[in-house]
Write a structure and sequence with these properties.
The chain has helices at residues 79-96, 105-108, 116-134, 138-145, 168-181, 196-205, 223-231, 251-260, 274-282, 293-296, 299-312, 325-335, 383-389; strands at 10-30, 33-49, 58-66, 155-157, 160-162, 185-189, 210-214, 242-243, 265-267, 288-291, 315-318, 368-370, 390-397. α4 (138-145) crosses α12 (325-335). 34% of the residues lie in helices and 22% in strands. The longest helix has 19 residues, at 116-134. By secondary structure, the protein is α/β, with parallel strands linked by helices. The strands form 3 sheets. Strands 5-6-7-8-9-10-11 form a 7-stranded parallel β-sheet. Strands 3-2-1-13 form a 4-stranded antiparallel β-sheet. A two-stranded antiparallel sheet has the order 4-12. It is globular, with a radius of gyration of 21 Å. The chain contains 13 helices and 13 strands. The structure holds magnesium ion. Residues 214, 216, 243-244, 268 line the site of magnesium ion.
Amino acid sequence: MSLGGPGQQLELVGLELVKVIVPLRHPWKSAAGTLSERESLLVRTVLRDHDGAPGGAEENEGWGECAALPWPTYNSEYTDGALAVARQYIVPALLAHAVASARSVAPALDWLKGHNMLKSAFQMALLDAELRFSGQSLASYLASCSSSGHRRASTVRAGVVVGLTSSVGELLGQVENFVAEGYGRVKLKISPGRELEAVAEVRNRWPQLVVMVDANGAYAAGGPASAAEQLAQLEEYDVACVEQPLAADDFLGHAQLAQRVRVPICLDESLTSPAAVTLALSVGACSVVNIKAGRLGGYLEAVRAHDICAATGAATWCGGMVETGLGRAANVALAALPNFSLPGDISASSRFFEQDIAGPVELGADGTVTVPTGPGLGVEILSRAMERFATVRLWQSRS
Ligand code: MG
């Protein structure tokens, strides 16, 4: 069934793959590499309604964003690989089966293993296009899909990730600027031997700030016992959670670690499906969940993960991947669900970009971001920026 409205029959007109390279204001360094520009794969879909509009067919387009980085260093997906898989397998399959509904994407691609971030981009594009027919916002639709009973916030608390820096002084300077802008949460990247000083300094200077740390699996080599010894040193600094200390597939190791340290464990890379979220919570591998729609396979799967966490009392927050205004707007819509209890990677477009391709997403004076209420994603493509930053455009129509 389409989301367009009662009786509405939507038809897939075509799909476009768009690769963009959007310059970042400042290089952003993480364990996955240093980004100086955001190379992203976008998906555009066009749907047509033959019956709904008086006087003839009406078309709407929708946009999705693949969260994959330019390199396979966060997970196995990367932009050019995603482009190849989309071109060779996904676009032909969705066109052949005339998939005109976001809910049909996962079943239609069930045979294609992995590539969650890419599948999510197609689902997101169809959600955006479908919801534009009914005038419903993505936030409103996701809330209607959730067991939380249509409840959603109108603003979400903003948080920011601080990249790896060459010195603690540089890091403190960045945190100072973010706090002055209104951000109420910072997430610091940590690795063995580099966890204490920065965290202690930030905590001492900003006692009220929500501080999280992300290890991106950096403690895997020593195993849970060694990780516990090092991470226990964070206990006195009121850290909201330590994210992904061990390897992505090490659920039991994380469960052992959680027994040994009082800082709550959060998982990111490990959680590749709602079933993985259930597994992690069942074995005690984490008590905090980073809900990242692309990694989970889509925004509909992210709502299921949110509901699993709500049912078990796990704290959640919405993770980001340095998305453009498209993915950023969708993340804000998701983060409006009621069980997002901690501020997520929800920052303004200006955190990363001088010129975004959609939006912009802006930070309010109270340190929140307003949830878009317009149809679909609720942000529009900034066409001059898109023309400037698009390096590949491949359109395929059904006919
Ligand atoms: Mg992470």
